[in-house]
Design brief:
14 helices; 39% helix; 23% strand; binds aspartic acid
Length: 412
Amino acid sequence: MKVFKFGGASLKTPERIRHVASIIQSHAENNLLVVVSAMGKTTDLLETLVAPAASAQAVNTALATLKKYHYDIIEALFQDTAGVYAAVNAIVADIEKEITLGDGDQRYDQVVSKGELMSSVIVHHYLLSQNLHSHWLDARTCIATDSSFREGKVDWAKTATNVQPLKAVLQKHIVITQGFVGRTPDGLTTTLGREGSDYSAAIFASSLDAASLTIWKDVAGVMNADPKRFPSPIVFEELPYKEAAEMTYYGANVIHPKTIKPLANKNIPLLVKNFDDPSLPGTRIHACTVENLPPLIVFKDHQCLISCKVTDYTFISEEQLGVIFHALSTLDIRINLMQNSAISFSFCIDFRESKVVKLIGMLQQNFEVYYNTGLTLITIKNYDAASFERYRQHPGVMLEQSSRSTLQVLVK
Ligand code: ASP
């Protein structure tokens, strides 16, 4: 069996949903499991419903926008709308109920997960209307997680057991399910982190021992640079798992960082294919060796540089480093680049305001703390002489580091 994943951009208009159906149809009548994201910017809209400071008016406006967006898609796609309206309205009623219940991350997950439910229901009904043997699956009955809301940790053993009955279903049907969602042992919904649908697809592929996972994107494949920043990047025909995993670590957002590992562990190839032109070869990420990879350039925006200085004319000690790392691990913050000097330790992290404010508060108990925000971390993996020089001389470099294969510069 195979797994396909379609993201929100591939599902944002009725035309695109028709195109999704045609890709599915040209592929198979069975043995295909399709993971879908929420349509367009639905997840952002759902986030506004649970924003801590959301006014009643903001909530009502967001709800109205959410309904109109999905209803317009339904009107454009279906002649007989009764079944799909009933299914979508049941989900809307749940949202309206759940935004009033509980608070914090738990409430977030109950509400924000609903975008994938709506989208999968619409795609499922559309495939049925095209006489395809679609079977709608609630992914939460398969993907078991712990109770870490907004960042559910997968229980792999339970998930592997949960997916077993699907094998029989897949013999006769195309299974349509949601990305991004899981379920706690208590039956509450969890989400797997923003953009987590790729990861969901990898979890299904791994648990079902799929022959491959195909992620359909609006790019020609995995490229050595972001096409929005570079006019003509190179599209890789194939990439080793390790190379692809490192790219995502440095911030390349073509695939969610957690996607590669479960596939690599089971040797399942990941195909990144172009949604608009499925005849393009795309990129195959699998166990292979590729000689002489070109320099790979990754820009990671919204970075923050924090420097901790000792105040008593001593040098930075291991004990003081311990204090810094303890604060970082308490707040679950990952360092993207770090450097120490005689009297200070500097590190670069993603700028998430509330976490950064907490971190600075903790560090100020022991250090003089300085910070800069709005920075970009540029990573050049497999650099050559030309790219090395070019990026070292980038204007506004605040921190720079290189190994034998990778150069990183943090710039204003
Ligand atoms: N809908 C979720 C998000 O926008 C998950 C995903 O699309 O991958 O983050």
